[in-house]
Amino acid sequence: MRSRAWAWLLLVPACAFGVVVATSPFVLFHPQLSFAGSPDRFVDAVVRAGRSDARAALWIDNVFLVSWLVTVPRLVGAGLDRWAAEERRANALWMASPRLAVAAAVAGLVGNGLALFAAGKSEPPVVVTWSVAASGVVSLVLFVVSMVSLLVLVIGPTGRYLVRRDRRGG
Question: What radius of gyration, in Å, describes the C-alpha atoms of the chain?
Fold first, then answer.
């Protein structure tokens, strides 16, 4: 993965995320469902979306999470090994960033699995809605950290290279 053109693979999860947003049953459906925290608010979000639409949105989100899992950790690792500045390779947080990208997707998949389990129930178990909320918080934090590492380790170095190449005329 020496070629910087590999960074174009980021379009796969970006497009999948666009589909998640475009097909969401209502604005902020996923955060409202993930951070409901109580069975009543969880059921309200599912009812507002419609049970089948809520389940479909969760499955579409799973497609995004799998596309993230397949592309982003590898690209962050390549950015760390080949494109990033030398001092970033010595930093423990940057070295952990591929594993954090995996953990973000896994936490999202666990939360979606629990939400799919609870989406059909008129009174989902409290522990399940709490677990959905906890995995939502964990995945949100890990996705923010992963996005920063994507910017610093992949997008920044490859974008800087493309700008320099254009200025050289080649």
Answer: 18
